[in-house]
Task: inverse folding
């Protein structure tokens, strides 16, 4: 793959991974709740789900979704429902009291739950498959080995996505650490409402 083609792909992907969406919200929420190191498990889950989507796209699922309105509709409903479910869980989660500091903090999920949430958020958006299916062919030369090019583009997307989400988690963790008393009590409600909004928008097809 020519360097200039790859660099063009990097620019497009950077704009995509820095755009607000469920994955960014996931990173911000976990970073604020438990810091970037624990948030890394949710982010690893998210990029694992992204790897699954890339693989499915390579196998042709993107074309199936594009051709079948019914399949895409039900996947979109299921994905939106999952995001709404996460939002409701955050809204209903009870904060815990840190006995050492007397501060009220949002309940932190286990590493396993964080990872599973990350996978779920990635897989909950069937539009990502269509995006990958539409984006990758623009940078692939049909006269060269397709599998190798797809692997390069997929690995680039995963690395850039992981880096961007870790940056968001680090920033949110630092901001909450400075104003923990003012923010921590409202964190679940804000994040929950946003997840519900993303889920409703996905189910309605407005995103």
Result:
């Amino acid at each position: 793959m020519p360097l200039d083609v790859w660099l063009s792909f990097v620019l497009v992907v950077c704009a995509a991974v820095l755009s607000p969406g469920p994955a960014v919200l996931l990173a911000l929420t976990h970073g604020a709740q438990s810091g970037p190191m624990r948030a890394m498990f949710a982010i690893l889950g998210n990029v694992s789900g992204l790897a699954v989507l890339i693989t499915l796209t390579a196998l042709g699922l993107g074309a199936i979704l594009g051709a079948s309105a019914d399949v895409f509709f039900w996947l979109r409903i299921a994905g939106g429902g999952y995001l709404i479910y996460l939002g409701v869980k955050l809204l209903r989660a009870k904060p815990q009291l840190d006995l050492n500091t007397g501060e009220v903090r949002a309940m932190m999920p286990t590493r396993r739950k964080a990872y599973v949430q990350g996978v779920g958020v990635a897989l909950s958006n069937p539009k990502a498959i269509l995006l990958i299916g539409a984006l990758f062919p623009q940078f692939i030369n049909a006269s060269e080995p397709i599998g190798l090019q797809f692997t390069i583009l997929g690995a680039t997307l995963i690395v850039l996505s992981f880096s961007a989400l870790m940056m968001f988690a680090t920033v949110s963790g630092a901001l909450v650490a400075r104003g923990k008393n003012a923010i921590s009590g409202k964190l679940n409600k804000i994040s929950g409402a946003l997840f519900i909004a993303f889920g409703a928008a996905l189910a309605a097809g407005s995103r």
In short: The longest strand covers residues 96-97. The two ends are 32 Å apart (CA to CA). The chain has nine helices and two strands.
